[in-house]
TrEMBL record, chain B:
Stored Pfam families: BPD_transp_1
Membrane topology: Multi-pass membrane protein
Compartment(s): Cell inner membrane; Cell membrane
Transmembrane segments: 12-38, 69-91, 100-120, 146-174, 195-220, 255-276, 304-329, 373-394, 406-428, 440-459, 500-523, 543-566
Entry superkingdom: Bacteria
Principal location: membrane
Keywords: Cell inner membrane, Cell membrane, Membrane, Transmembrane, Transmembrane helix, Transport
Domain ABC transmembrane type-1 residues, every copy: 65-272, 369-563
Family recorded in the similarity comment: Belongs to the binding-protein-dependent transport system permease family.
Protein's UniProt name: Iron ABC transporter permease
Key word Glycoprotein present: no
Organism: Shinella lacus
Signal peptide range: none
Statement: the UniProt record of this protein carries the keyword Magnesium: no
From TrEMBL, chains C, D:
Gene3D superfamilies (alphabetical): P-loop containing nucleotide triphosphate hydrolases
UniProt KW Membrane keyword: yes
Record's keyword terms, sorted: ATP-binding, Cell membrane, Membrane, Nucleotide-binding, Translocase, Transport
InterPro entries the UniProt entry points to: AAA+_ATPase (IPR003593), ABC_transporter-like_ATP-bd (IPR003439), ABC_transporter-like_CS (IPR017871), ABC_transpr_FbpC (IPR015853), ABC_transpr_MalK/UgpC-like (IPR047641), P-loop_NTPase (IPR027417)
Protein name: ABC transporter ATP-binding protein
Subcellular location: Cell inner membrane
Native organism taxonomy: Bacteria, Pseudomonadati, Pseudomonadota, Alphaproteobacteria, Hyphomicrobiales
CDD domains named among the record's database cross-references: ABC_Carb_Solutes_like
Residue ranges of every copy of the ABC transporter domain listed in the record: 2-238
Keyword ATP-binding appears in the UniProt entry: yes
A molecular function (GO) term: ATP binding
Organism: Shinella lacus
Pfam families referenced in this protein's UniProt entry, alphabetically: ABC_tran
Membrane topology of this protein: Peripheral membrane protein
The family this protein is said to belong to: Belongs to the ABC transporter superfamily.
Length: 351, 575, 346, 346
């Protein structure tokens, strides 16, 4: 509490005494953060573990049960699970560096501090559709011409895709409106279906939705050049940066009714029983970026097109659509968490 | 005082080893497993109801379970047939190029199964998931979905991946089969095929069961192949389901599925156990010396050789080639163009691969390499030493209930998803237990968990070979007054050497490739190759990940070579 | 030195050794004789400590080595006994010399001594030139000799032999039994020796135990066994050739040929082959037989004929051709009479 | 029906079968006799097709089955031969009945027939009650009988036996050889039979081949072997007991006892045991021996003594105690004389 309000300058001597900070991170880019951090604060050793959000969650829970403090800082995605299973049990706690209080909008500061935003949005092959997205409305995906040609990762295999499904259900009202726009008549719900979102998911699956195991398979399927009739599907906007290397033609479909997908946060949080509380706070502060307009070395690994910093003061990445122009739902992790399991069960019943 | 001691001693001699092994298995396997079981029950057991008796259970459990069992049994059968056939060819016939076939046939399970699946796709893939089709579509054939996706390709790919396990274990066993058993069969006028399936494979039943069980366990817990080939037609297996459940935060359901997977598998594995525990003996190494027997294949020599070569090339060279290409080609869409060594040795270049330098510039590659090797070697020796002891206990001391428990327990780690296994280890041994310090964060904990995870391989292979040594050989050594470990070292070990080498190899390959357990338990000061590969992959640097995978593969291959050479230097008279 | 007290052994419920008691002094040479499957090997294995009796006690001298009741068993290693396995049980991964050497190594003999013992044992068994071969590369008889050499080299106090010469030729067997007796005498060991060879039994044994169905039929000195078989089984089992056991009933040989000298019971009369003569003519106590086989032995011929399904062997000195209508003349008195249970009556 | 022409076999350079030629007609019963390691098993294995001769041809009837020169070999499966392995080679994972059944299954006999044959074979070998046991659960002799049953049940045209009765007791052996001869006669098969048992050789054989060091020493009818051994080796090897081979030199027995009847060469004189008498007093052709052993046989006693390191066996009828100062009187004429190479001279 006391520490929470300390400035970097005040934290530094304490952190130096601790001399070490352990970070669990869901991305290997933490390696580059580590180098930068140790260069910025010599004498404080950052120890970084790279593991998926799921593995972090398993590890944090087991560690808590065993009474050991593994990490000081947790850098994690998979917001709904983190909130319900970690934050609510106080296994991880919120920390917002004083420096960030004014730079990060409220919605990204609570219940945990979000460092940046990622996406799962509808994307298409710009080589096959040079005139823009062939789809203007999510409901188009349930039409016969897209039968067997919509692709995504099995929402029961990956949390972010389940979040997408959940958001669609949460935004049922928008979905119902979009239905009218697409078919020119009000939506009629099928039996046992409670809302337009569920109806959409049902119809999508009924339209021979193709499921795969990883985002990369989606990218390849959609993006591969030289296809006459490529599928369309949901994936990460930021993967577009690999277009050149991989030979893809991925492009985001932004103008979609009611939305092209979701934007979700990556959290930076403290371990409630951190062994190095000061260094932990210092590390979070560092990872939020410095005062330069690209966030400096601490944020550099995350300053990529298709991911947006939650800080409002950083410059837009030149290659990407600004967040404000991006037509996505920003998930509300708390709301999502509430019905996520039900949506999972709903999807489970479909396949 | 003396009387109870007197009573104790003979029963110790009779059950002591088994009891000791049971104790170790409780610590290594049963306790962590119980932790997981308790977790699933803590919240009222709702997950059990969801999985077994709810409107969801059909999709959540029953259908995936059915698929899993079909796959498991088909793969086990296929692997035993294919692996057994190749083992027979290599060990018992004069097929040309035996050493090379032997070498190649051990490779497939070192190649990650996604590469094998990729190889399948490169031929049979159709346009269902976009992109270009495979070779067949390229030639103008239209490939139906059942051949591109789902059950059939999954089974074929898994057989192509796991038959090497069966091959390795069965070949080791066959090489010790006393020639006169085969000769006796030849005298009856039986055809080669008849002898193979009527005598040769049955006399090495322990190895066949070991190979089959390992393949079964591998197949039912494999994730990559059903995820790659099954999902597009919405075929789910228990492993994809439970992986998904854990992934989307429904951990309890995931663990319930894992426990159910274990339970179902235990039924099938129990059948194998019963055969091994029956009165039947499989002592093919007799105390009368033995001459090895080789069939001359005659006119079938070339056709059979061709068949073996085709299988080997398709299941090893093709996936390896694809893997190699995938580590050289900038685009995963056209694997055979624009090859560059950048991903291996390139210096950092901001304009290419997001500035990532080649893997040989990775600052931790060397330390990852050495840690991997050291850890691998340590774990493998620990696991196999234990495995041999367990195998001896199971073969020589048949204690009614305990033996069965030991046998089953030693197999379970193979079926339990690594993430669950590792989590249980942290939960159980992470905190201090009584006077014992917390093991969390130590290499010891990782070592213990990996040792437990490798036990199935060690026990199965050990058991297959120990069962072949006729009892009187050991008894003759007991008569000399040599102690248990002395006999183990001088008599059992050399006679079981081939099988043990197989066990060492299989577990080594597994341990250096293991990710699921390592990723939760490793210590960051010493990353492992698998973790390295994983972090590359998780950021979308596939070429780099594949390059590291190839490094792992090369290490595995070197280990195989070493094992072969070691074996070759021994005079193979009894075998 | 070895004494057994009501020792029994069951496998899965069937008794294969049944209430066996006997004792032999130190330095004795006990031969176990008996039909296939009667429990001889099981006996040896119990003495060796490889099998635990299900009942009774085994003592070596004063020392209890196994007690079926309490389950106590001294492990084989601590009995100072050696066993030649019926199946040889050679270690297939060791050379001939290696096989012989290993027990010596276990006993921690100095290298010098070991070399000498190996050389001696191989020399004695005529396998010196096979030293570097593996068990799979030598003949059956050679393997058997290796098994013998391996057991003898460490000079155990109790030597157990399970048909150790069964795969050797007659000439070698004569040599070997000579050598074995020498070793036995030199080491003062107590030996238990299973054999099917009557000559071995008669020449080597200080005591013979004839077993049948897991029980001891007779335990005696070898000469007494021949002279005074205590049961029909023993009478018909020992001797080269074994005595004829001719069924009698109502005072008639084979139930047909009346003889006043015979008792009036149903049973068997023991008639030694050498007391049966070949007869030219029918006459008293003469039985007509069909010729089964003629075996030259000890300068004579054993002539076996079958009468009423009973094989009868006679011995003849003459080298004449046998008449096509062969007749045996039985002796005036049977050497012994056994009742229908096989118990000796006279 | 079986003929061998200059058949040889080498293992790693050493010839273990050396230039063997002979032939036997269909239905013959050939016994191979010879010391341990002389190549008997190897011969059988070549006949079976399990071993390829390195030289020479083997024919079954007119059919060439193996040719060492060209490397041609008819596979074992196509020779219609059966082999009882010296090591039994029972399949450990099958029951006794299963072991016997498997070859019948391979021969595609109908189930009915198979059952009958199994029952018959087991009955004949006295192992009926072991049908459901596994090989590891029966005694050595029982295993050997299973091996026999397994070979006999399919009734092959060529039956090869490698010491098939070595682990059976004398009584059972007599029965078995009787049964085997019956099978042999009934099926009209040609048999080749390796044994160390002289009685078996003499009673079963139509032809005997005595082997030594891979060569055939003598190939003859059994009686002729005893009566007219063609070499010192054969003389000293066959017979129960085998004839004495007493060294002679310069017309002196044992180089010391002059005898005008002896030729003036260095070699061996063959003296049958039955022609040597026990002497009370020193006298002509009398040699003083140390008693080695006494074996009761065929109602007589074989007395073996050692003189100058030479074992000499005599036969005595008397049951008297042997004098402590034992003397043997040699016969006036040796039955045969062999030169120092072992070749027969007279
Ligand atoms: N693989 C081998 N390498 C070298 N020598 C061998 C091999 N197999 C057998 N021999 C030798 O060949 C000779 C003949 O062996 P074989 O088994 O034919 O003898 P045998 O006459 O059957 O003897 P026995 O009566 O002891 O069984 C033996 O001296 C044996 O040592
Ligand atoms: N494991 C077992 N289970 C059941 N019966 C067994 C087992 N082992 C041996 N037997 C039986 O016990 C009896 C005695 O066996 P043992 O080996 O002692 O006979 P043996 O006298 O040595 O015979 P042989 O002269 O044939 O070697 C046999 O009838 C055999 O079938
Ligand atoms: Mg026995
Ligand atoms: Mg032999």
């Amino acid at each position: 509490q006391d520490l929470d309000s300390k400035s970097v300058a005040d934290l530094l001597p304490l952190a130096k005494k601790e001399a070490k900070v352990t970070v669990y991170a869901f991305t290997s880019r933490i390696g580059r953060v580590e180098e930068a951090f140790e260069a910025a604060y010599p004498g404080i050793d950052m120890v970084a573990f790279d593991m998926s959000s799921t593995e972090q969650i398993a590890r944090i829970k087991s560690e808590a049960a065993a009474g050991v403090a593994g990490a000081d800082v947790i850098y994690i995605s998979d917001a709904p699970v983190v909130l319900t299973e970690l934050a609510s049990q106080n296994l991880v706690t919120r920390y917002v560096p004083p420096r960030m209080e004014s730079l990060v909008p409220e919605q990204f500061k609570s219940p945990l501090l979000a460092q940046r935003l990622s996406t799962k949005v509808l994307m298409y092959n710009e080589e096959a559709y040079p005139d823009g997205s062939p789809v203007k409305n999510l409901w188009d995906l349930t039409k016969p011409e897209w039968k067997g040609r919509v692709i995504m990762v099995d929402p029961l295999q990956r949390g972010d895709y389940l979040d997408l499904m959940t958001e669609i259900v949460l935004k049922s009202d928008d979905m119902a409106k979009a239905y009218e726009a697409a078919f020119g008549k009000p939506i009629a719900l099928g039996e046992g279906i409670d809302n337009a979102g569920e109806q959409f998911i049902t119809d999508l699956f009924a339209n021979d939705l193709v499921l795969v195991g990883s985002t990369d398979d989606v990218n390849k399927a959609i993006g591969a050049k030289g296809q006459k009739n490529p599928p369309i599907g949901f994936t990460s906007y930021s993967d577009r940066r690999d277009n050149e290397d991989e030979g893809w033609a991925l492009q985001v479909a932004n103008d979609i009714e009611p939305s092209n997908g979701i934007v979700f946060p990556a959290f930076l949080a403290l371990n409630a029983t951190a062994a190095n509380p000061a260094a932990a706070r210092l590390a979070i502060d560092f990872m939020m970026g410095d005062d330069s307009n690209t966030g400096g070395d601490g944020f550099k690994p995350f300053y990529v097109a298709g991911d947006w910093p939650t800080r409002t003061d950083l410059a837009q990445h030149p290659d990407a659509i600004p967040l404000s122009d991006f037509k996505s739902w920003q998930i509300d992790a708390a709301e999502t968490a509430k019905i996520r399991a039900n949506v999972a069960d709903f999807v489970l019943a479909l396949q | 005082m003396t009387v109870p001691l007197r009573r104790l001693r003979p029963s110790l001699a009779r059950y002591g080893l088994t009891a000791a092994m049971a104790l170790i298995l409780v610590v290594l396997v049963a306790a962590p497993l119980a932790t997981i079981l308790i977790q699933t029950l803590q919240s009222g057991g709702g997950a059990w109801a969801d999985v077994l008796a709810s409107r969801l259970s059909q999709n959540l459990f029953w259908r995936p379970a059915t698929n899993t069992m079909i796959i498991g049994l088909a793969v086990a059968g296929g692997c035993v047939l294919l692996g057994g056939f190749l083992a027979w060819l290599v060990v018992m016939t004069d097929v040309p190029g035996r050493p090379l076939i032997a070498f190649m046939a051990t490779l497939p399970f070192m190649i990650p199964s996604f590469a094998t699946a990729l190889a399948w796709g490169s031929v049979f893939r159709n346009g269902r998931v976009g992109g270009a089709g495979g070779l067949l579509e390229g030639l103008g054939f239209s490939v139906p979905d059942w051949l591109s996706w789902g059950m059939v390709p999954t089974i074929v790919v898994l057989i192509a991946h796991y038959y090497a396990l069966a091959f390795t274990v069965i070949a080791a066993a066959l090489s010790t089969v006393n020639g006169d058993l085969v000769e006796a069969a030849q005298m009856t006028g039986a055809s080669r095929k008849r002898i193979l399936f009527g005598i040769v494979l049955p006399v090495v039943t322990p190895a066949v069961i070991a190979g089959g069980s390992l393949a079964f366990a591998g197949a039912v817990s494999n994730f990559a192949a059903p995820a790659l080939l099954g999902l597009p037609v919405r075929m789910q297996t228990l492993s994809t389901r439970l992986f998904g459940m854990i992934e989307i935060g429904q951990t309890e359901r995931g663990y319930v599925l894992a426990i159910l997977l274990i339970a179902i598998s235990a039924i099938f594995l129990g059948i194998g156990n019963r055969i091994l525990n029956s009165r039947r003996s499989f002592a093919t190494i007799s105390g009368k010396g033995a001459r090895p027997r080789r069939f001359t294949l005659g006119t079938m020599r070339l056709p059979l050789a061709l068949l073996a070569w085709t299988v080997c090339i398709l299941t090893t060279l093709l996936p390896i080639l694809l893997l190699l290409a995938a580590s050289l080609a900038p685009s995963s869409l056209s694997l055979f163009s624009d090859w560059t060594l950048h991903y291996w040795i390139g210096a950092a270049d901001p304009a290419f691969a997001r500035g990532q330098p080649g893997i040989f510039h990775h600052p931790q590659l060397i330390s990852a390499l050495t840690t991997t090797l050291m850890l691998g070697a340590g774990v493998v020796f620990a696991a196999n030493a234990l495995g041999l002891l367990i195998a001896v206990a199971l073969t020589r001391q048949k204690v009614p209930v305990l033996s069965n428990a030991v046998s089953q327990l030693s197999f379970l780690p193979m079926l339990l998803p690594g993430i669950a296994f590792a989590a249980a280890y942290i939960a159980l041994y992470g905190a201090p237990i009584g006077p014992l310090p917390a093991l969390y964060g130590t290499k010891l904990l990782l070592g213990l968990a990996l040792t437990a995870a490798m036990l199935p391989f060690a026990v199965q292979t050990g058991r297959a070979t120990v069962a072949q040594i006729s009892g009187d050989i050991d008894e003759a050594a007991r008569m000399t007054g040599a102690g248990f470990f002395h006999r183990l070292w001088a008599i059992t070990l050399p006679l079981a050497a081939r099988g043990l080498a197989a066990g060492l190899l299989i577990s080594f390959v597994n341990v250096i490739g293991d990710l699921a357990i390592t990723v939760l338990l490793y210590t960051p000061t010493s990353p492992l190759l698998a973790v390295l590969s994983y972090s590359y992959a998780s950021d979308g640097f596939h070429q780099f990940a594949n390059a590291v995978t190839l490094v792992i593969l090369v290490i595995s291959m070197l280990a195989t070579c070493a094992a072969t050479l070691l074996r070759g230097r021994r005079r193979q008279t009894f075998a | 030195m070895i004494s057994l007290n009501q020792v029994s052994k069951s496998f899965a419920g069937t008794r294969v050794v049944d209430d066996v008691s006997f004792s032999v002094p130190e330095g004795a040479f006990l031969v176990l004789l008996g039909p296939s499957g009667c429990g001889k090997s099981t006996m040896l294995r119990m003495l060796a400590g490889l099998e635990q009796p299900t009942g009774g006690q085994i003592r070596f001298g004063d020392m209890l080595v196994a007690d079926g009741g309490s389950g106590f068993a001294l492990p084989p290693a601590r009995r100072d006994a050696g066993l030649v396995f019926q199946s040889y049980a050679l270690w297939p991964h060791m050379t001939v010399a290696g096989n012989i050497d290993w027990p010596l190594k276990v006993a921690r003999l100095p290298a010098e001594e070991r070399r000498a013992r190996i050389a001696e044992a191989m020399e004695m068994l005529g396998i010196t030139q096979l030293a570097q071969r593996y068990p799979g590369e030598i003949s059956g008889g050679q393997q058997q000799r290796v098994a013998l050499a391996r057991m003898i080299a460490p000079r155990p106090k109790v030597m157990l032999f399970d048909e150790p010469l069964s795969n050797l030729d007659a000439t070698l067997r004569v040599e070997m039994r000579f050598e074995l007796l020498k070793v036995h005498a030199a080491t003062g060991a107590t030996s238990v020796y299973v054999t099917h060879d009557q000559v071995e039994a008669m020449t080597m044994a200080s005591h013979v135990a004839v077993m049948n169905h897991g029980r001891i039929e007779q335990f005696d000195a070898p000469e007494r066994l021949l002279a005074e078989p205590s049961s029909a089984f023993v009478a018909g089992f020992v001797g080269t050739p074994a005595a004829n056991l001719i069924p009698i009933a109502d005072g008639k040989w084979l139930g047909t040929i009346a003889d006043a000298a015979l008792p009036d019971i149903a049973g068997h009369a023991m008639v030694r082959a050498e007391t049966i003569e070949l007869a030219d003519e029918a006459g008293p106590r003469t039985v007509s037989v069909t010729l089964a086989e003629v075996v030259p032995m000890a300068g004579r011929r054993l002539v076996t004929g079958v009468a009423n399904g009973v094989r009868i062997t006679a011995i003849t000195d003459s080298t004449d051709r046998l008449p096509s209508n062969l007749r045996f003349r039985l002796p005036p008195a049977a050497a012994a009479i056994f009742d229908s249970e096989g118990k000796r009556i006279s």
